[in-house]
Design goal:
The protein is α/β, with parallel strands linked by helices. 40% of the residues lie in helices and 14% in strands. It is built from six helices and five strands. The chain has a five-stranded parallel beta sheet, sandwiched between helices. Helix 3 links the parallel strand 2 and strand 3. Helix 1 crosses helix 3 and helix 4 packs parallel to helix 5. The longest helix has 14 residues. The protein is globular. The termini are far apart. The relative contact order is 0.18.
């Protein structure tokens, strides 16, 4: 990929091992981009990359429950994120559910690709559309629909 992306990586506790494994598997690709992570996830990814001898810039925000999800959502609003991978623990309650939903919602509203599982993340990060100069993502349309 020629274009350098700003990629947000967020993972709940029960999904952190999955995220680290995914990041290491995709390290050749990820090392070409700027990574923005919530605090704990970013620390785990940095450590895994260091252990593998992989050099990559990782910007760490606060942990999710301490406002990291909200910080990344603000970056989405300000067009500072190109792609987000958010591995959510759907089997447990999260005390910061409002922040989780805010991040997901802002990605949808601002048309930022968001992958919530590894398969989607693999498909999105390897898409040839990232480097297709003729492809311009269409903004979402919010048009009232009237049932007859």
């Amino acid at each position: 990929m020629k274009k350098q992306l700003k990629i947000a990586l967020v993972a709940h506790d029960a999904r952190k091992a999955d995220m680290v494994e995914w990041a290491v598997f995709n390290s050749d690709m990820l090392s070409q981009h700027k990574l923005i992570c919530t605090g704990t996830t970013g620390g785990l990814i940095q450590k895994a990359f260091e252990n593998e001898g992989i050099e990559v810039e990782v910007e760490r925000k606060n942990s999710g429950p301490m406002g990291g999800d909200a910080e990344i959502a603000a970056m989405v609003v300000n067009k500072q994120i190109d792609f987000c991978v958010f591995l959510i623990d759907d089997l447990s309650a999260n005390p910061h559910e409002a922040d989780i939903q805010m991040l997901l919602r802002q990605c949808r509203i601002h048309n930022i690709p968001i992958a919530c599982n590894r398969y989607s993340a693999d498909l999105m990060i390897t898409s040839p559309l990232w480097d297709n100069d003729e492809y311009v993502p269409k903004d979402p349309q919010y048009i009232p629909f009237h049932r007859e």
